[in-house]
Amino acid sequence: MSDGSRIPESRQEQREVLRRLRETLRPHASAQQVIVGVLCFLLGITIVVQVRAQDEDALQGATQEDLVRLLDESDRHVSELEQENEELDGSLATLQAGHEDDVAAQNAAQERLEDLEIVAGTSPAYGRGISARVTESTGTVRARTVLGVVQELRNAGAEVIQVGDVRVVASTSFTTAEDGTLLVDGTRVPAPFDVLAIGDPTVMEPALSIPGGAVDSVSADGGSLEVSSEEQVAIEALATVREPEYSRVVK
Amino acid sequence: MIAILGLLIGIAVGLFLQPDVPAVLQPYLPIAVVAALDTLAGGLRAVLDGVFNAHVFITSFLFNVLIAALLVFLGDQLGVGAQLSTAVIVVLGIRIFSNAAAIRRRLFRS
């Protein structure tokens, strides 16, 4: 093969080169030309096939080494993903546990809220208890006597108390109006009225009827107290809660 | 002329028939194509030099393709297939470039 640095020196030589090119491009029907054509034909097919294979699937043309490397890489990727999956599973379990704790805390808070609502008198309550009817026959039942009845009930373990239509809570007052009518928390409660209490009736009923107890003191005021135990006492009167004006929670 | 026609017809047939290559030949095909292109470039240069010989062209075409494929096969067997393929491609690429440069010098006077 001659070296590639030879440059045509004259115009004539240049023409000679171009003539050779034209000569070659002119079709000859010689066997050699046909064979060269066939080889080029095969080359054309091969190029197209190869380009097509590359388009279809990059892996098809890859060598064994490349394939092994790709396999290794995907294996590593899979193990990384599995590890990540485990971590995410762990955090999911943690979060679920935390959620369960939250639910438990919320349930406890809800129960406590209900208890406090009953104690504060802001929600209706029902349960076993007693119903005591106060009537006046000869005299007037004094406020302190009714307060005594309520105290007796509290001593006997009453959880929720209602006098007339008024819910009795920690701050409930028992006073007397100018005309002698009983005032519970400022609400007139004229006789006859009912005292309802939720608690253990087998304790509260005897507590009211002991000698010198509530029944006797109501009788001394010229009234009567009829106590009956009930399987289902519904206390629906509600107390209003005032915002504490002076008190602050100690922290 | 017949060569160019053959190339074009080959591309057309390849596009039209979409033949499948046996999996065994898959790795050798790209190298064979590059080797054939190198031979084509060398043939064109010989034509312009006025020393073209069809016998030489045909044998060098077949030999180049065979040797290129053989080298890749050998490389695969030795476990250096990728590197040897790269080496063959580089050498053939350099040859194609130098042949193309020679052709250019003959066609266009600097």
TrEMBL record, chain B:
Membrane topology qualifier: Multi-pass membrane protein
Keyword vocabulary terms for this entry: Cell membrane, Membrane, Transmembrane, Transmembrane helix
Coiled coil: none
Domain of life: Bacteria
Entry annotated with the keyword Disulfide bond: no
One Pfam family named in its UniProt record: DUF1290
InterPro entries, sorted: DUF1290
Annotated TM spans: 27-48, 55-74, 80-103
Major location category of this protein: membrane
UniProt similarity note: Belongs to the sbp family.
Protein name as it appears in the record: Small basic family protein
Organism: Brachybacterium rhamnosum
